[in-house]
Write a structure and sequence with these properties.
734 residues; 5-stranded parallel sheet
């Protein structure tokens, strides 16, 4: 595949439905505007097995001509313009001019029809299914599509889509809550009863979990499966995944999860109707289904397939018990399951939310304690429990502990709006300032009524809480914390979405800051903030002008000197950049963030002795910045004489960062370097049993064990994980 320019690029690192609709929208936009289109079809890492080989679904020549993998996407992503950001003011001509000048546009919406501002939505939606004709499918798939068309022609089947699969089984996916994709079986059972009241009704069930189809089929011979209609064809995983979606699209009515890209795409290309199965029930039936679910959970019914199935059901049970004024029952059910072994990460969030709704915010401290006593499958859980516990501590007036929890939460999920809301409350109560938190500009602050998003009920409920001594109904202070993530990207956590680096999204974020602080137009604080966003956009001239002005007008502010150094480093003016950063450190002589930034820069220019002295100084400072502890540990690891000190720093990071893979792997590496293989293996075994880490985690394991001549141990660990040892070995040798 040659260089891609001026194209509509389809990309979703997701399931079949999302990938297909991104392709169809790309084809439609490209054809309507006379532009080329291209597909970035990722197959690396933990891509679902059915999607790893696109030639199982598409014609090999078509794949060769139109598809690329992750490397192309990485090269393109930062400069892609998301089609959702194209404005009416830009217009068709501006859009085409940008494309013809070489700009690439991203078709990445997971569901629905992408409509540009100058287009008619109804017209586009009517024509979008025709884009399927431009997709060249593999010969076996084409043959089965024709068979599906013939078999289902005029059948008027009702389709049920029951999503289970990875969201109840996969060690990572099942530890996230999917309330718009997982729908309890009780809703389907009640809906099926009503559907079958029509003697002519026939239902076809689609599910990634055969047990669910079998249970519904057992209720009536008018309920069938894909195999019942089309036979046990010898289909590959990828082909079957697409063909089930295609068969679903031939059904006039589809009932399933409200936000499943699979069923949404089937509806879009088939032109039928799609309704969330629970919304299709009458209120009395919906309530009956939820009561049945609550009873089954309390009784520990054998209908639940595993703890992932139980966990995903809890959200719905909570909704019902809250609605009937009995959150205590919900809390008791979850607690009992946790005592019986439920350790799904989202259960902590549910318990925290129940604590708020039941008027017991302080219980979040207990939830946090439980989380730190258990395995961690998903980092999000640690962010959530620390965020809620920080809020509880603020309300109780335990400000030092609150600040520590908040720093941990912000490290785990730097961009989370809930964490930002807690930070704004801490700012209001003067619990954090530029000396005790990630350094921020105290002049870029305004008042706001609510600091938690009102669009999500669970977060909106937090607006009723405030730190001790602060009026919950009064105005709060607000700061755009995304800026601190950009300022301190090096010492923040690493969980950032791709929108953080996509230029069209950065432009929108820059505009939002300007709008939020419009009353400060012309001020140094706003100009400097905009300069940070300009640097993220690659406009170093504008960024340099903004930060040069800032240090000239407010020379005593360390942050402005640090921002100036960022720009100068980007412009490769290394000497001036180091001088600016040194000056920032002189103004904030013991702040770990400034010192860590300087240590990193000194290491990059190979000022070895100076960098070592600075990292040793950092090791003596008492602080709660997890990433700084990790950085110091990694720096001291390079010096054999300081391995024990490095291990001590890693332990300081792991205490609040319980279960985080980078920290666990880092500690295991240090233990291996110290000759303490048994302790290291215990950590590696834990990571494998939890199902966490990536292929590159296992590359590190392989390299460490090769050094002591025990590749067999590394092989054993990887073969018990989700990763392929031969792939890991190729990466290690590359």
């Amino acid at each position: 595949m040659g260089q891609i320019t001026g194209s509509i690029v389809a990309h979703r690192n997701d399931g079949m439905g999302a990938r297909l609709i991104a392709m169809l929208n790309a084809v439609r936009v490209a054809q309507d505007h006379g532009l080329p289109w291209h597909v970035c079809w990722t197959t690396h890492g933990q891509t679902r097995p059915e999607l790893r080989e696109p030639t199982q679904i598409f014609d090999p020549d078509f794949v060769a001509a139109k598809f690329s993998d992750v490397e192309t996407m990485q090269d393109l992503y930062e400069d892609l313009i998301d089609l959702s950001t194209v404005t009416a003011a830009q217009g068709r001509d501006g859009f085409l001019d940008a494309a013809r000048s070489g700009r690439n546009f991203l078709s990445g919406a997971a569901m629905g029809v992408t409509v540009l501002p100058w287009e008619q939505a109804a017209d586009v939606a009517a024509r979008l299914p025709q884009a399927l004709d431009q997709i060249q499918f593999a010969a076996p798939v084409r043959a089965m599509m024709a068979r599906i068309d013939e078999t289902l022609k005029g059948a008027r089947l009702v389709a049920y889509h029951i999503r289970r699969g990875d969201i109840i089984h996969h060690p990572v996916a099942s530890n996230k809550l999917w309330p718009n994709k997982y729908i309890p079986r009780e809703f389907y059972e009640l809906h099926l009863e009503r559907t079958l009241e029509d003697p002519k009704a026939r239902v076809i069930c689609f599910s990634d979990t055969p047990q669910e189809v079998a249970r519904l089929k057992a209720r009536s011979d008018r309920v069938v499966s894909f195999d019942d209609l089309l036979g046990q064809s010898n289909l590959t995983l990828g082909a079957r995944d697409f063909l089930e979606l295609y068969a679903m699209s031939r059904c006039a009515r589809i009932y399933g999860p409200p936000e499943s890209a699979f069923s949404q795409t089937a509806r879009t290309i088939g032109g039928g109707t799609l309704e969330a199965v629970q919304d299709a029930l009458k209120p009395i039936d919906r309530a009956a289904a939820l009561d049945l679910l609550s009873d089954r959970l309390e009784e520990r019914s054998g209908l639940f397939l595993n703890m992932g199935d139980v966990g995903q059901s809890l959200h719905f049970m909570i909704q019902r018990q809250n609605a009937v004024g009995n959150p205590g029952r919900a809390k008791r059910i979850i607690r009992d399951y946790m005592e019986a072994g439920l350790d799904k990460s989202f259960a902590y969030q549910l318990l925290c939310e129940l604590s708020v709704s039941s008027g017991d915010l302080a219980y979040c401290n207990r939830v946090r304690a439980m989380a730190y006593e258990r395995p961690v499958y998903v980092d999000d859980s640690m962010a959530v429990v620390n965020g809620y516990a920080a809020l509880a501590r603020l309300e109780a007036g335990h400000f030092d502990v609150a600040r520590s929890h908040l720093l941990t939460a912000a490290w785990f999920r730097p961009l989370d709006p809930m964490i930002h809301g807690v930070a704004n409350l801490a700012l209001t109560a003067e619990v954090i300032d530029p000396d005790s938190f990630y350094p921020f500009d105290p002049d870029l602050v305004r008042e706001k009524g609510n600091v938690f998003p009102a669009g999500k009920p669970a977060l909106d409920a937090l607006n009723a809480h405030a730190p001790q001594g602060v009026d919950a109904d009064g105005r709060k202070l607000f700061h755009p914390w995304e800026l601190t993530v950009r300022d301190w990207r090096l010492v923040h956590g690493k969980r950032l979405n791709r929108a953080f680096s996509n230029k069209s999204k950065i432009e929108r974020a820059r505009e939002m800051i300007a709008t939020a602080f419009s009353k400060m137009e012309g001020s140094v604080a706003l100009a400097s903030a905009q300069g940070v966003m300009d640097l993220a956009l690659g406009d170093t001239e504008a960024a340099l002008a903004a930060q040069t002005r800032a240090v000239a007008e407010v020379p005593e502010r360390a942050l402005y000197h640090k921002r100036l150094s960022d720009v100068l480093f980007q412009r490769e003016d290394e000497g001036a950049a180091l001088r600016a950063l040194h000056h920032a450190c002189e103004l904030a002589p013991r702040h770990p963030c400034y010192l860590a930034e300087l240590g990193h820069r000194l290491h990059r220019i190979k000022a070895k002795d100076e960098a070592l002295a600075l990292h040793l100084k950092l090791a003596e400072i008492d602080h709660d910045f997890i990433e700084v502890h990790l950085m110091v540990a990694e720096a001291l690891r390079r010096e054999r004489d300081h391995l024990e000190a490095a291990l001590a720093e890693m332990d300081k990071a792991l205490t609040p960062g319980h279960g985080q893979v980078r920290l666990m792997a880092g500690k295991a590496r240090l233990l291996m370097m110290l000759g303490r293989e048994a302790e290291a293996r215990e950590i590696y075994e834990t990571m494998v049993s939890w199902g966490v880490g990536t292929e590159y985690t296992h590359v590190q394991i392989l390299r460490m064990y090769r050094e002591i001549g025990r590749e067999d141990v590394a092989r054993s660990l990887t073969e018990r994980s989700d990763f392929d040892f031969e792939t890991v070995r190729e990466l290690a040798d590359g």
